[in-house]
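During the no-cost extension, the postdoctoral fellow (Dr. R.K.) reprocessed legacy sequence entries with the updated structure-token encoder. One reprocessed record is reproduced below for audit purposes.
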Amino acid sequence: MNLSIRCNRIVKELLVRCAAVVLCVFLVCVTGCGIDEYIYLYPPSWGGNDPTDTTDAERKFFEFNTRDFLNIEAADEYYTGYEVYYRVYNKSSVRDADRSQINTYNSNDTTKAMAFNYVSNTKKFRRLIRVQDDLNAPVSGAFIPRSASDRTITIRLHEEGAYAPGIWIDGAPWYQIPAESVLWAPKRSIQEGGSFTDRSLIEFTFDNFTVNNPTDYDITVSDNGSETEVYVLAYAFAVGLDNSYRSIYSEALYLGSITILE
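Re-encoded structure tokens follow.
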């Protein structure tokens, strides 16, 4: 065997070994060096009621349909349920501008996967809190936990006329303890950050909307806003946890806006 052939074989063996080393390094990086796996969650679907600007107390509720079956089928080990985020306004035109910007962002294929960050960080929406009404304590986990089957979720924020605040699942009241007939109650989270105090979990009543109070982080206060009503704009997301236990979110579902009167 001449020297040229031997050199060619040596070079080929070195190339094969180098390729194997590169592949191993790549696999290690993919599995252990922080390259994220994309997990898709199906957003909830519209429940059929848009309460925006209605004066009919019967229609003043948010509603959406869950997609538990699809999310369990596609992301069973990650999917945990649904969250609702809201913001309060004292001027309907400012609310409408935010709604338009969020809906445009959420409908764009290049940005809709990041809709949650836009809603929560850019527009400063707050997480709706489900509390044990007798203790005024927030519960852990998703606002609406996952289930084995799809459901219709109805949320009333405030009392008006014959209608009381609460959460309903498939038309039935959602009780903390059925024997005691105590409803889960939605509350505002007005304090900045993730901690809660008695003051930071309060009801959606007009008297509690202190539009001139700078400590209420869930309100956008505008000059020449209404002095007799406020508008609560809301979006829903499917939510889960990735392999590093970080929260992941679906695209946003627009739920509409509820007007709360003085």
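The CA atoms of residues 67 and 150 lie 5 Å apart. The helical segments are 3-32, 68-75, 92-107, 115-122. The remaining legacy entries will be reprocessed before the final report is submitted.
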